[in-house]
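Example S7 (C-alpha cells).
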C-alpha cells in the first residue's frame, strides 16, 4: 500500500492544550490497524502547548493558512494521503472502533460521506440536552429526506469527492451543513 492510507483524520486546533491529548490518545488506540491511518492536526496559531502535544501523537502537524475552521479542514485534507478523510475536533474523545466503523461504511461504493452524533467532553446538563436534541433533529431530517447535515466533529468523506466539490466553504458557521448540500 506504500504510504497511502485508508483513512486520514483531520483535526483543526486552536489553543486546545486542555483537550487535545485526550482526543489524540483516543485516536492512536483505534481498532483499525495504526498503519492504515494517519492523524493530521492543523493548528490555527495556538499560543499554548497545543502544537507540542500534537507532535507527540500526530503523523503531521501543519500551520493553518486558509480562513476559518472549514479552511483548516481543507488545509488538512490537502496534505493527507488517505482514501477517506475523517473530520473531528480537538475536544472530542472518539470510541476505539470509530475508524474501523468508518472504513467499513465506505466498503459500499455508493457511500460518499458518513456522519454521526457527538458526545461532548464537557458533561454539563445544558450541553447534553442541546447536543442530544441536535443529534436527534439531524437524524430525523436525514431519514425523512428533509435535509442532510454533517457534523464537522464526526464526518468522513471520500477524499476524491471532497476535492471534486471544492471542500468546505470559508463560512464562519454552517459550513458543515453547506457541504452536505453540495455532497448530495
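Recovered sequence:
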Amino acid at each position: 500500500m506504500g504510504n497511502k492510507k485508508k483513512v486520514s483524520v483531520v483535526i483543526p486546533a486552536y489553543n486546545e492544550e486542555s483537550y487535545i491529548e485526550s482526543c489524540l490518545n483516543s485516536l492512536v488506540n483505534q481498532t483499525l490497524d495504526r498503519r492504515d491511518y494517519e492523524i493530521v492536526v492543523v493548528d490555527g496559531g495556538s499560543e499554548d502547548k497545543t502544537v507540542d502535544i500534537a507532535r507527540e501523537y500526530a503523523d503531521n502537524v501543519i500551520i493553518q493558512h486558509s480562513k476559518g475552521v472549514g479552511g483548516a479542514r481543507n488545509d488538512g485534507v490537502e496534505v493527507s494521503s488517505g482514501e477517506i478523510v475523517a473530520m473531528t475536533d480537538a475536544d472530542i474523545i472518539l470510541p476505539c472502533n470509530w475508524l474501523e466503523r468508518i472504513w467499513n461504511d465506505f466498503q459500499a461504493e455508493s457511500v460518499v460521506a458518513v456522519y454521526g452524533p457527538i458526545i461532548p467532553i464537557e458533561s454539563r446538563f445544558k450541553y447534553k440536552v442541546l447536543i442530544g436534541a441536535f443529534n436527534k433533529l439531524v437524524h430525523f431530517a436525514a431519514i425523512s429526506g428533509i435535509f442532510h447535515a454533517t457534523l464537522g466533529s464526526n464526518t468522513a468523506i471520500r477524499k476524491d469527492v471532497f476535492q471534486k466539490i471544492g471542500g468546505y466553504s470559508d463560512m464562519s458557521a454552517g459550513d458543515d451543513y453547506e457541504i452536505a448540500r453540495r455532497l448530495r
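Notes on this example. The chain has a mean pLDDT of 81.
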